[in-house]
Amino acid sequence: MTAVTAPADFAGQVAIVTGGGSGIGRAVALRWAVGGGDVVVVGRRTGSLEETAGLAERYGVRAEAAACDVRDADAVGALVDRVAADHGRLDALVNNAAGNFVSAAEDLSPGGWRAVVDIVLNGTFYCTHAAGRHMLAAGRGAVLNVIASYAWHGHPGTVHSAAAKGGVLAMTRTLAAEWAGRGVRVNCLSPGPTETEGAGAALWPTDEARQRVLASVPAGRFTTPEEVAESAAFLLDGRRAGYVTGDVLTVDGGQWLGRAVYTDGTRGGGA
Ligand SMILES: CCCCCCCCCCC/C=C/C(=O)SCCNC(=O)CCNC(=O)[C@H](O)C(C)(C)COP(=O)(O)OP(=O)(O)OC[C@H]1O[C@@H](n2cnc3c(N)ncnc32)[C@H](O)[C@@H]1OP(=O)(O)O
Ligand SMILES: NC(=O)C1=CN([C@@H]2O[C@H](COP(=O)(O)OP(=O)(O)OC[C@H]3O[C@@H](n4cnc5c(N)ncnc54)[C@H](OP(=O)(O)O)[C@@H]3O)[C@@H](O)[C@H]2O)C=CC1
């Protein structure tokens, strides 16, 4: 008989969400809490983290705001160990923290390159290395890395972020194969243009830039953090996605596939 699975249910589980004080990270943390899971949100700004934790607690779960810069490997290690000890388990890690701005490669300073690569690539490794040890010891866990489609196709003006996200994609596939036999899944989620303050300020700060981004999406709209969080919940749920590892779920309204050249994009025939 075919078993029909219930909706995501994270009751009794514990997740760490980096960049959980805003945008997509906040929505993922709240979606986890809606499923009944305890959550620890990590970032640099305490105020926004506390706001997320307060919202999560409304769902009756334990929620904590933990100030930590993911570029600090020692601080990350201490935080992850403390969370695992406090809760007696660690089921999920969402590597969502990121920094970004648009810069021509030739204008980018070494400091600008380092800032983004340290947050996105090194920060993801530090968190995954620390959390992975607990998950491997328990024989279960899910790591979800938030990337962007330019990880595989590149995009002018984003050499730091594209290189870092590309590294995260390679890390994901490598660890997925390394850890699959020990119960730990590692996947990527690749959102398209999503209405968040951080991305708006960094990537579409003017109406004109926003319209240009919008024009690149076949679906004709931006997405929301909440819509992205539903896909995150699927990948984190071992009952629904237990056999999915090393993959990328792209949630971008078709953006990376590109807009029509020969038609107006609303029908399959000639223009
Ligand atoms: C063009 C693309 C459009 C494509 C269509 C859209 C498709 C969607 C794909 C989008 C994918 C990804 C999206 C995102 O990641 S959105 C997340 C955005 N959120 C944030 O960036 C929030 C966090 N950001 C930050 O903390 C900062 O912006 C920063 C990353 C810079 C890190 O902060 P930190 O305080 O550590 O860094 P500093 O301010 O000290 O700066 C460090 C060096 O970086 C240089 N820098 C900073 N800003 C800029 C800039 N705007 N332009 C050039 N250089 C910059 C700064 O000068 C420092 O360098 P030096 O040491 O050399 O001075
Ligand atoms: N919005 C979009 O269109 C898209 C976003 N993405 C990806 O989605 C994810 C979330 O982006 P979005 O919600 O839009 O952006 P936000 O700017 O809202 O989120 C970024 C988060 O990362 C945290 N962060 C940044 N640097 C650090 C650090 N050094 N240590 C700890 N936390 C840090 C920030 O908190 P704080 O400043 O307090 O540290 C912030 O909460 C990112 O990985 C981004 O690359 C991918 C494709 C499209």
UniProtKB/TrEMBL annotation:
It is found in: Peroxisome. Coiled coil: none annotated. It catalyses: (2E)-hexenoyl-CoA + NADPH + H(+) = hexanoyl-CoA + NADP(+); a (2E)-enoyl-CoA + NADPH + H(+) = a 2,3-saturated acyl-CoA + NADP(+); (2E)-dodecenoyl-CoA + NADPH + H(+) = dodecanoyl-CoA + NADP(+); (2E)-octenoyl-CoA + NADPH + H(+) = octanoyl-CoA + NADP(+). Its EC number is 1.3.1.38. One of its GO terms (biological process) is fatty acid biosynthetic process. InterPro entries: NAD(P)-bd_dom_sf, Peroxisomal_t2-enoyl-CoA_red, SDR_fam. Keywords: Fatty acid biosynthesis, Fatty acid metabolism, Lipid biosynthesis, Lipid metabolism, NADP, Oxidoreductase, Peroxisome, Phosphoprotein. Transmembrane segments: none annotated. The keyword Phosphoprotein applies. Gene3D superfamilies: NAD(P)-binding Rossmann-like Domain. One of its GO terms (molecular function) is trans-2-enoyl-CoA reductase (NADPH) activity. Pathway: Lipid metabolism. Participates in chain elongation of fatty acids. Catalyzes the reduction of trans-2-enoyl-CoAs of varying chain lengths from 6:1 to 16:1, having maximum activity with 10:1 CoA. Has no 2,4-dienoyl-CoA reductase activity. Interacts with PEX5, probably required to target it into peroxisomes. This is Peroxisomal trans-2-enoyl-CoA reductase. The lineage of its organism: Bacteria, Bacillati, Actinomycetota, Actinomycetes, Geodermatophilales.
